[in-house]
Amino acid sequence: MNRPYQNATDLDMMSRVLRKRLDHTTHFAGRFGAIYFITICCEQRGTNQLCHDVSASVLFNTARIYHERGRWNLNLLLLMPDHLHALIGIDGRNSLSQLIRDYKRITAKLAQIQWQRNFFDHRLRNDESLAEKFAYICQNPIRAGLTKDEADWPYVFIPNLKFRR
């Protein structure tokens, strides 16, 4: 009898969870510019990889450079120990997936961060308020039990303000 999986390597490959590749192609409305709620997760969840001075500095400085050079319009970047949230506006000429890919690539190299392969994005619609999403993200450290007051969370960058450190 011919078995398709005859060795341990084949069985190991079967036992791995295959992740669905997320579609990050530009939606029709995004071709004219859009604001996205982004979540990027570290490969290893549950450990603090981002909320360190060196990692945070690399992430914030890279985001600031992207903002200043017009690659994106950053409204907010908030770090959690194993993921980050951002509110990013892009014009219709830029590809969100390419921007995030480049951001992850450079920050991985500079800060030795191991990112998950994909990222999560949600395009803000007309009926959604940027202010509501902004407040929701800022409350994340409180919901996670990391701080009691959002003003005390040092790992947030708002481009039009100085680092809150």
What does this structure look like?
There is one protein chain. The chain is an alpha+beta fold and 165 residues long. It has a single domain (29-157), classed as Transposase IS200-like (Alpha-Beta Plaits). 32% of the residues lie in helices and 18% in strands. A five-stranded antiparallel sheet has the order 4-1-3-2-5, sandwiched between helices. β2 and β3 form a beta hairpin. The longest helix has 16 residues, at 53-68.
Regions with little confidence, pLDDT below 50 for 5+ residues = 1-8, 26-30
CATH class: Alpha Beta
User: Helix- and strand-based class?
Assistant: alpha+beta
What strand order characterises the main sheet? 4-1-3-2-5
Separation of the first and last Cα atoms: 66 Å
Order of helices and strands: HEHEEHEHHE
Number of domains: 1
CATH architecture: 2-Layer Sandwich
- The helix content is 25-40%
Write the layout of secondary structure elements.
Elements lengths: L7 H8 L18 E8 L11 H16 L4 E7 L3 E8 L5 H16 L8 E4 L6 H9 L1 H4 L12 E2 L8
Keywords summarizing the entry:
disordered N terminus; 5 helices; Alpha-Beta Plaits; globular; five-stranded antiparallel β-sheet; 32% helix; 165 residues; alpha+beta
Short description:
The chain is of the alpha+beta class.
